[in-house]
Structures are given as structure tokens and as C-alpha cells.
Write a structure and sequence with these properties.
Blueprint (H helix, E strand, L loop, with lengths): L3 E2 L2 E5 L2 E11 L2 E5 L2 E13 L9 E5 L2 E4 L6 E4 L7 E5 L2 E2 L16 H4 L1 E5 L8 E3 L1 H8 L12 H9 L5
Parallel strand pairs: 1-3, 2-4, 3-5, 4-6, 5-7, 5-8, 6-9, 7-10, 9-11, 11-12
């Protein structure tokens, strides 16, 4: 069983697998170019933002989601509390993802407060498909590195660029 509880982070070029709520918690994370593998029926995310004023949430950017074969057995996520926020943008999803994608965790009131977004694709009526202008706030690294005075992410990314580049 693999669980990934994130704080403020940028995760890139990695492989994550699991079954139920294997990316969870109340944090801010940008997962970029990652391979997410659903081992069995369950939920990829359970984000637990505590209020609509919090800036936390998960963004999956240019990722790939695969499964163990079979069709429609996993959800993209469910809100662990009423204000969960998750965005999938430019992400390939194979047949393991249920067509409606999102689950309200058995509480219809979560459909009014949870922020489940997809960019360039919409599943359930209560999930939002972002338009270009709305997506920009989530697709930039500033989502997890908002302090331009102390840009920790920009500094880390610079360390990955070869000197000869």
C-alpha cells in the first residue's frame, strides 16, 4: 500500500501507485509529468482543504494515469471534507478511470463546495471545466511558489538545469 501525504511541494517525473486515497491531506502540491497507477478500485486523491479561503490543493499537470487493465474502476478523487480542491490538466487517463471521475464521498453538499477541476475535459455536472483564464492560476509554478521574494521552487529547478544548457 502506497500513500503520499504532501505539504507544499513540487513533484516531477515520478511514479506513484496505490488504491484508496493514496494522495491525501491538506497541502499544496504540483505533480508534473508523473505516472499515477491505480492498482485496484478506489480513489486517487482525498484532498482536505478546510475552507474556501485556503490556497491549498493538488494540481496534476501533464501526467499519465494508468490501471491494471479493466475499465472504469477508479475515481480521480473525493473531498476529504467539504472544500477539497484538485485539478487535472493535460493529463492522459486510461480506461481505469470511471467516466464520471469524481465522487462526493456520499454527501451531496460536497458537490456545492468541493473544487474538482479538469482542464479541457468535464465529467460530472458539479465538477468544473476550467477555461483558459481560470486554468492559468493552477498551471503556473506560482501556485505552489507564491512568494516572489523567496522563490524556493525556482531555485530548486535551477539546480536541475545542467551548466552546459
Amino acid at each position: 500500500m502506497c500513500f503520499l501525504q504532501l505539504q507544499i511541494s513540487w513533484v516531477a517525473d515520478c511514479y506513484i501507485e496505490g488504491s484508496v486515497d493514496f494522495i491525501f491531506g491538506n497541502s499544496t502540491a504540483l505533480l508534473e509529468h508523473c505516472h499515477i497507477h491505480c492498482k485496484s478500485a478506489g480513489y486517487i486523491t482525498a484532498q482536505s482543504r478546510k475552507s474556501s479561503q485556503e490556497t491549498t490543493g493538488y494540481v496534476f499537470l501533464r501526467c499519465v494515469i494508468t490501471g491494471n487493465g479493466g475499465t472504469q474502476y477508479s475515481y480521480l478523487g473525493r473531498p476529504w471534507g467539504p472544500f477539497g480542491r484538485v485539478v487535472f490538466a493535460y493529463t492522459y487517463m486510461d480506461a481505469c478511470i470511471k467516466h464520471h471521475g469524481w465522487n462526493n464521498w456520499g454527501k451531496t453538499e460536497n458537490e456545492r463546495s468541493a473544487c474538482f477541476y479538469e482542464y479541457k475535459y468535464k465529467r460530472v455536472t458539479w465538477a468544473r471545466e476550467l477555461v483558459d483564464e481560470e486554468a492559468d492560476q493552477f498551471l503556473m509554478h506560482s501556485f505552489i511558489d507564491p512568494n516572489s521574494e523567496r522563490p524556493w521552487l525556482a531555485q530548486r529547478m535551477a539546480l536541475r538545469v545542467p551548466y552546459s544548457a
